[in-house]
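Batch job 17 of 40 flagged for manual review because the log was empty.
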Amino acid sequence: EVQLVESGGGLVQAGGSLTLSCAASGFTLADSAIAWFRQTPGKEREEVSCISNGDGSTYYADSVKGRFTISSDSAKNTVHLQMNSLKHEDAAVYSCAAVWGWCSYYDWDDYNYWGQGTQVTVTS
């Protein structure tokens, strides 16, 4: 059974850092791309980052470029999202999603598998 399980969310002060993890089971990361999305109530879901595990290429939304880093740990079949210099507008439910192949112009529904999400709250 394919599963994606996020962890690492929580409370963090503005300017602080947090690392989210997306643990995959039931498939090998190497054949997939993993994206991180975030959503807040009343806002459209936003893709913030993606990694193509076939060649390690990455994508970042402009809103997080230079502050977030996505990485893949093939030994643990886990993708991490290191988030630095967090802002209040980064607060959201962060979810990971997997698709066979490469990062591309995919919407949330285009992905093959999805995690349940983890809450990130940024305090003053």
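Reviewer: the log was empty due to a logging misconfiguration, but the result itself is present. The mean pLDDT is 96. Unflagging and moving on to job 18.
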